[in-house]
Amino acid sequence: MNEAAAAKLRYQQGNEKGVISSCSNGTEHCISQLSKQQAMKLQQFRGALRDVLQPHNDDDDLLRWLRARNFDLKKSEAMFRKNLLWRQEIGADTILENYTDPEVIQKYYTGGSIGFDKTGCPIWYDPIGNIDMQGLLRSAKRSAMVKNKVGMMERMNKLFKECSKKNGKKINQLICIMDLKNLGRKHLWKPGIDVFVEMICMFEDHYPETLKQCFIINAASVFPILFNITKPFLSSETKKKIHILGVNYLLTLLEYIDADQLIAHYGGKLYDENNDPKCSSHICYGGAVPKEYFKTSDKDDIENFTEVTIKRGSSVEISADITVPGSLLSWQFTTANCDINFGIFKKKVYSITKQSEMTVVVPSQRVNSHLVPEDGSILCEEPGIYIFQFDNNYSWLRCKHVFYRITIIKPDIDNHISEDIILD
């Protein structure tokens, strides 16, 4: 069975199970497909929220929250009310009118929407393999990246209403195509991963059941590592909607999207108003963030860092014990006013070892960490003691103040893509 046929079969099976609806009104959360118990819980849910409901909270909207918590009334109500507080705190209702993304976010934060699937749902493209997360976080606050995605979802909600009116049926979900081309170890950076996890949690907690299908193309070798990190934050329903496509991904995409609605860059026939096959006027393709955007360090950047003073003519070594092969070891550090010599070594045995007897992991070199914060990550294939060395032996006049953070992310035991994710 080819990829397209397999995907279509899964789609049909989903319909039979009530996971994906083919109702005449177009919504995947068709009221007529609810069991008697589910229909009763929907009415109970509406009654429990009668003090806060707005006109747009129709049955289809309320079902999103119930499904997100498996029709547990208490959990669904708590989720709904918590979302109302969050929207007020972050200003979601007015973010499109009152907030403008920083220029660096507009130019280099990947993603964009153009076209619709065969049922009229919008398509969101994210060439996330091109994202320079380190450059973005050096140039803008994390909160700015969060607000960008809030704005994106609020724009999608407006588009859902327009699509519903145009098509004469309820549209409240989107198709996502994620392109992982160029994804590499530079993306295994703890602060960047933290932001990605925060986005996932935001989508799950505040925009539940908005994802219709997610197609991942050009999956790189580091994808299983990243997925195993983010998997615990995905609901079981979301996992079922993720499809990892092979080299013939076009066959599968065309099962869901007509060629004239799929951008030419991915094999369709859709061009933007500039006759661009990538539709760059609608989709940001990221790229390396120029250093001119980098901001200077401030107290917020090092709030959770450890401070160490390295005396003149001396060095400091910090140990990281890796017990599980395949662990991801990441670091960040900055210095106050001066440079520092930095390197990473691995002990061959668990004992006092001279540097000359250690394995060089990252060669020592002087870095201008007082100008631009240093960071990096390595995949530790072998367990052992990894030594971070901050060396100030070359300086006889100045002591150095280093602010650092070292993190270890252990892999899942199996260290492979979950069976919950559909491999096409």
TrEMBL record:
One of its GO terms (cellular component) is cytoplasm. Residues 282-408 form the GOLD domain. Residues 101-274 form the CRAL-TRIO domain. PROSITE patterns: CRAL_TRIO, GOLD. Pfam families: CRAL_TRIO. InterPro entries: CRAL-TRIO_dom, CRAL-TRIO_dom_sf, CRAL/TRIO_N_dom, CRAL/TRIO_N_dom_sf, GOLD_dom, GOLD_dom_sf, SEC14/CRAL-TRIO_domain. PANTHER family: SEC14 RELATED PROTEIN, SEC14-LIKE PROTEIN 2. This is SEC14-like protein 2,SEC14-like protein 4,SEC14-like protein 3. It comes from Acanthosepion pharaonis.
